[in-house]
């Protein structure tokens, strides 16, 4: 399979020799939208370092539908509990955006962690970022209105899709934000009337990125700042 033009930022931060050794133990795989990569409470078989693709992490609620708690793209990885020595996934992970990713078996990943200090340090920093973003997401869901949260989610998706245009249904948006479809329709219509996005039959394109950032809640920039600060960017 051909190498992607995009890379994974966590792997990019490794010293050259460490990165080469790690990638030699990975395979480059194509992820398909809707593909389940991990299930809550079940063993983690593989870790994934997305390059083009992005993955939705959701928590399952006994009394209702699942709620997306994070998106993982080429800034991160799937399988972070292994860094803490935990072999089960706490979330349900489903591919949301198609594309390539580096995949590594959990067993090989554990050995690499034991042998590579730079890898451990980088992933410890990423765990801090992930925990901070999960806390930010919880506050965002509780206190910010749907239109702000939708703007934030669209910006996050565009960053991970490496494109200002992508396809997303009302159903998936409702699932991602944990609101009813009518709420998504109202928020998307408002953003479209303000000429910030174009939305037709699930095809979304960002027309005014600066305007969409202004319409978003502060959580979008806070997440980026946390990542850049922690990862030394």
From TrEMBL:
GO cellular component: cytosol
A Pfam family recorded for this sequence: cNMP_binding
Matches recorded under SUPFAM superfamilies: cAMP-binding domain-like, Winged helix' DNA-binding domain
InterPro entries xref list: cNMP-bd_dom (IPR000595), cNMP-bd_dom_sf (IPR018490), Env_Response_Regulators (IPR050397), HTH_CRP (IPR012318), RmlC-like_jellyroll (IPR014710), WH-like_DNA-bd_sf (IPR036388), WH_DNA-bd_sf (IPR036390)
Record carries keyword Transferase: no
Highest taxon in the source lineage: Bacteria
PROSITE patterns: CNMP_BINDING_3, HTH_CRP_2
GO MF term set: DNA binding; DNA-binding transcription factor activity
Protein name: cAMP-binding domain of CRP or a regulatory subunit of cAMP-dependent protein kinases
Organism: Usitatibacter palustris
């Amino acid at each position: 399979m051909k190498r992607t033009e995009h890379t994974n930022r966590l792997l990019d931060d490794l010293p050259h020799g460490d990165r080469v050794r790690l990638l030699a133990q990975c395979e480059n795989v194509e992820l398909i939208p809707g593909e389940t990569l991990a299930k809550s409470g079940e063993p983690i078989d593989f870790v994934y370092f997305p390059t083009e693709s992005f993955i939705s992490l959701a928590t399952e609620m006994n009394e209702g539908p699942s709620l997306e708690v994070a998106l993982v793209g080429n800034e991160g990885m799937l399988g972070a509990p292994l860094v803490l020595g935990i072999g089960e996934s706490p979330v349900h992970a489903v591919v949301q955006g198609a594309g390539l990713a580096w995949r590594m078996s959990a067993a090989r990943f554990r050995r690499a962690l034991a042998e590579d200090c730079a890898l451990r340090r980088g992933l410890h920093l990423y765990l801090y970022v992930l925990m901070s973003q999960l806390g930010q997401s919880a506050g965002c869901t509780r206190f910010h209105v749907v239109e702000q949260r939708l703007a934030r989610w669209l910006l996050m998706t565009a960053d991970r899709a490496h494109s200002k245009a992508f396809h997303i249904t009302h159903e998936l948006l409702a699932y991602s934000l944990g609101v009813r479809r009518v709420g998504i329709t109202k928020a998307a219509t408002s953003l479209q009337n303000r000429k910030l996005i174009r939305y037709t039959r699930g095809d979304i394109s960002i027309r005014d990125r600066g305007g969409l950032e202004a319409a978003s809640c502060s959580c979008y920039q806070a997440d980026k700042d946390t990542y850049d600060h922690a990862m030394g960017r």
